[in-house]
Amino acid sequence: MTFLFGIILAVFIGISLGLIGGGGSVLAVPVLVYVMGVAPKPAIAMTLFIVGFVSIIGVIPHWKQGNVNFRTAFIFGAATMLGAFLGAKIATLPLITGSFQMILFAVVVFVAAIFMIKKGSQPVKKNSPGELDISLYPKPICKYCWLWMITEGLGVGLLTGLVGVGGGFAIVPALVLLGNTPMREAIGTSLVIIILNSGAGFIGYLGHIPLNWNLMISFTIAASLGIIGGAYFSRFVKPRQLQRGFGYFLIAVATFVLFQNRNKFYSSYSPQQHPIRQEQHY
């Protein structure tokens, strides 16, 4: 029953990706940890595989419509891949406990949720086709935009490797503001970058942690079916309203994760307790 419930949740993870273009990793990590009983480190690695594979399916319609700039994806993605690989390697160190990763995950999710709520609450402006309403995003100092892109790419990649969050909420504005990329193209290109991120982070974990391949493949198939359904239903719903509602849901997820790790946050600093032993609590 637990496995079946987890698979159903995996379908909803795919639906969220299809409806709003993100949220897969944000949902997959807590489902794997708190529903399926997977330890945080393997759960994050499995999430990278799941989200990366499902994003391949999600990028196909954008590619067919000509909304993917592979040159920009590989330039920006090179920095994010390096960051993701380094983040994964750092995460495999004994000093980085599963509890620390989950707490950092909750903080990142909370920030992303606030961002989505603010974006969803703003009045809709009538922009011309291909134009992006970037009033929410700060205007960067674009004298060295390429340097800003590399710096943000490394930061997004590090978070991806450490906590499994794809960073789509940060990639799209970076492509628009720093890379001068049209909105439609930025969304499609960001999926390619997420694929590269996830692949690099997953490789960084390989050989250092145990992986439940059967569960990972089952989740991937279920989420892939979900993203197809989500892409279909996205024609009938307003994305801004979805983003706002999903943002409040993410706050609840982040609060739950922090609550679950309230005691482990303090015990992880105890010199009498070896960090690796804390993984056994999951």
Automatic annotation (TrEMBL):
UniProt KW keywords:
Cell membrane, Membrane, Transmembrane, Transmembrane helix
Q: Name one GO cellular component term.
A: plasma membrane
Q: Which InterPro entries match?
A: TM_pro_TauE-like, TSUP/Inactive_protease-like
Q: Which residues form a coiled coil?
A: none
Q: How does it sit in the membrane?
A: Multi-pass membrane protein
Which Pfam families does the annotation name? TauE (PF01925)
Q: Which residues cross the membrane?
A: 6-36, 43-63, 69-88, 95-117, 156-179, 186-207, 213-233, 245-261
Q: Where in the cell is it found?
A: Cell membrane; Membrane
Q: Give the superkingdom in one word.
A: Bacteria
Which protein family is it in?
Answer: Belongs to the 4-toluene sulfonate uptake permease (TSUP) (TC 2.A.102) family.
The name of this protein is Probable membrane transporter protein
